[in-house]
Amino acid sequence: MTEIIAPKGTKDLYLPEIKKWQFIEEQIRQYFSRFLYQEIRTPIFEYTELFYKGTGSESEVVQKEMYTFKDKANRSITLRPENTPSVVRSVLENNLVQEIVPLRFFYIGPMFRYDKPQKGRYRQFHQFGIEVFGDPSAEVDAEVIFSAFGFLEEINIQNIELHINSVGCRQCRPEFLKKLQESAQQKRDELCEDCQRKITTNPLRIFDCKNTHCIEISNHFPKISDYLCPQCHDHFAGVRSALSILEVPFTSNPRLVRGLDYYTRTVFEITSVRLGAQDALLGGGRYDNLFQELGGKEIPATGFAAGIERLILHLDQVPDSKKKIICIVFQSPSFKHKALKLSTYLWKKGFPVFIDYNAKNMKKQFKKCDRIGADYAFIIAEEEISSQSISIKNLKTTEQIQIKSEALDQWLRENI
Ligand code: HAM
User: Fold this and answer.
1) What is the domain partition of the chain in residue ranges?
2) CATH of 326-415 among 3.40.50.20, 1.20.120.520, 3.40.630.30, 3.40.50.800
3) Dist. CA 150–CA 306, nearest whole Å
4) Buried b (16+ CB within 10 A) or exposed e, 152-178
């Protein structure tokens, strides 16, 4: 083992797990193109200010979990802990509102949070997410939720639950927060230390606490659903009725508040019964004020992000999309160039081909074919050269045939 190891909370990805990653990434691209999402790639690091203004200075992520450092010009840089503020920044900075219609983006990439690592929780983890801009309707929220739920079904992730809530807007939330603070103050001594701090800094987060005693107490605190203004109330009713039309099963959960500060109205999470403590597979919601908070005009927005590592934990098997592998086996070193010629022909046609250039004899080459899991061996020997033919051995059945070189194209079309 080397003495230098990967940093805590990160991991290397390689076979066989990398197959699952490739499968998921391919499915994301295919699936979300149905809803007209375009890919966007933003930098992995941004100026720290973006997350203070975007994710929210009072959120746990910004307060405790960011990888922040000064660059050589003394600017404060942060490895992105999430991608929503970056996508909004990019749309504003590049004036994409004018250029891309519809304004719908998806992304896949690494995020960084200084979290306590455990199963399903890492310091470098990967998200895929979608963001829809410019549509205030309840129906588009339901469509986003439908696409999230449908994607998990598409990749065969089962035993999932969808929780939704509305966290209101700038108009109705302050009144609710006041009432919540009052109730929490009255029970202050019974709450955990963390919740006591949240009463003044971020009372909504009290609902995130996992302490069973705090949960029992906060169950009796005011619920945001009782304080929604008529517009937020109607919007939430619209989301629920559209979800019913879309046949997405959901639970309305008044405790669901999400960990990031920008949400307005609809919030949602899909959890898994299999994940235990880190049960959130994905989460998202509406954030109608973020464009303004980052210096733009008001543009309604909604979206979600999923943790790819957590999806991987749920994928037992992925369909084997492996192309058939051909090994070219040559009788003696003098046939090496013939083997190269044949492989060039096959590579250009798109077939995976392997040649063991250094093997001493054919037996060794066949052994190598087995080890790399090849499906066919194309054999070039004295007999094949003189009769302008090629022998093809099916390495799974051991059946062997000899065909004329000019018939190779047809054989490939019919067999691989
Ligand atoms: P989030 O809930 O902070 O939302 O993260 C989304 C998902 O990322 C989580 O549900 C979880 O699956 C995964 N995740 C978060 N932290 C970790 C970690 N340390 N290790 C592994 N997986 C993790 C957002 O990030 C928002 N930007 C979502 C959004 C997009 N809202 C609107 N648009």
Assistant:
1) 18-172+228-312, 326-415
2) 3.40.50.800
3) 13
4) beebebeebebbbbbbbbeebbeebbe
* Surface-to-core class of residue 181, CB atoms within 10 Å of its CB (0-12 exposed, 13-18 middle, 19+ buried): middle
- Ligand 1 centroid–CA 281 distance in Å is 8
- pLDDT by residue (tens digit) across 151-193? 999 999 989 999 999 999 999 999 999 999 999 999 999 999 9
Cis peptide bond prior to 102, omega within 30° of 0: yes
Residues contacting ligand 1 via CB (< 6 Å)? 82-84, 113, 115, 121-122, 125, 127, 129, 131, 259-260, 280-285, 303-307, 309-310
Q: How many Å apart are CA 298 and CA 398, to the nearest integer?
A: 67
The string of pLDDT tens digits covering residues 16-48 is: 899 999 999 999 999 999 999 999 999 999 999
Q: Whose CA is nearest to atom 14 of ligand 1?
A: 307
pLDDT band at 58 (very low <50, low <70, confident <90, very high): confident
pTM of the model: 0.91
Give me the amino acid identity at 258: R
